[in-house]
Specification:
Low-confidence stretches: none
Structural class: alpha+beta
Order of helices and strands: HEHHEEEEEEEEHH
Radius of gyration: 19 Å
Mean pLDDT: 94
Number of strands: 9
Strand order of the largest sheet: 1-7-5-9-2
Largest sheet: 5 strands, antiparallel
Number of helices: 5
Oligomer: single chain
Distance between the termini: 17 Å
């Protein structure tokens, strides 16, 4: 039992959650070992509210996925209807990439609703972001996740040794992101207890942080973080990025589902990413702890 178990109360009679009983998924739907975040990555995400992991995908993977994204944006009718989304074709493998599963196991999964044939979290949206120079808008939103009302999903909770990010964004950058192009982020604002100052309304405010990265990079941020898009400025190449949201199995923010034929064709474990939104006995192949 890790020390944080003493702080986590299970659903019945005030008993602490026995983390030794957790059966968090160890292998993804493609048979690849899950990659948990390092201690440093966990510390940085909890401290900052966002985490960038550069160059996760190979050049060949990026080229294939980018080509599909460009086809999806420019000529969607050429793609079979069931694959016509940001989880279609080669992009499907990103839904439960080993690093995504490892991160969600740590910061989102509900232990009693996870096992080796069922993820303990859900994917509830996936969108292709295609931006050419001048596309995109500045619009700050969210923050103050420690104080949101239940049901909002934009929550961030933490105790010594454990944190939970209720609605979590995953971004795959399939083209390089250079200075002046990345999503804007207010580091630490997921834990803030004061309203943001008026200077937040300027994209040039020093309050904003951002990032640069090579193609194939992976970025996580809690939706409780204050963040904003901004116009894409690069004329070398467009932004081609996959934005997804993950949530608990008992909560939902977006009105989105995969095409039913695409869902039916997925490996059974991957299908559990899209199961119904409820808690009681919502565990494939087992009984809720």
């Amino acid at each position: 039992m890790s020390s944080n178990g003493a702080f986590i109360i299970d659903k019945n009679l005030g008993a602490r959650l026995d983390e030794t009983q957790a059966d968090l998924t160890r292998v993804n739907a493609d048979g690849l070992d899950v990659v948990p975040p390092t201690d440093e990555q966990k510390y940085l995400f909890d401290k900052d509210g966002w985490l960038l992991i550069p160059g996760v995908l190979s050049e060949a993977e990026c080229a294939e996925m980018r080509a599909f994204g460009l086809q999806l944006h420019h000529d969607p009718e050429s793609i079979p209807e069931r694959e016509r989304s940001a989880i279609g074709g080669p992009l499907q493998s990103l839904t439960d990439h080993p690093m995504v599963v490892g991160f969600m196991n740590e910061f989102l999964a509900y232990p009693g609703l996870s096992n080796q044939i069922c993820y303990g979290f859900r994917q509830e949206s996936a969108t292709l972001f295609y931006r050419e120079a001048g596309d995109g808008e500045f619009g700050p939103h969210n923050g103050n996740g420690m104080l949101r009302l239940p049901g909002d999903s934009h929550l961030y909770r933490c105790i010594p040794g454990k944190a939970n990010s209720a609605l979590t964004r995953v971004v795959w950058e399939l083209n390089p992101v250079e200075e002046g192009n990345g999503t804007l982020l207010v580091t630490g604002s997921h834990k803030s207890v004061f309203p943001t100052p008026s200077s937040i309304q300027s994209p040039d405010s020093p309050i904003w942080d951002t990032y640069t990265c090579p193609a194939g990079s992976l970025m996580f941020f809690t939706e409780a973080l204050t963040h904003s898009g901004r116009p894409w400025v690069s004329e070398k190449y467009p932004r081609v990025a996959i934005f997804s949201c993950y949530n608990s199995v008992g909560s939902r923010w977006h009105n989105w589902d995969p095409h039913p034929e695409l869902l039916a064709s997925m490996p059974p474990l991957r299908q559990t990413l899209y199961r119904g939104v409820y808690v009681g006995n919502n565990l494939v192949g087992g009984v809720m702890l």
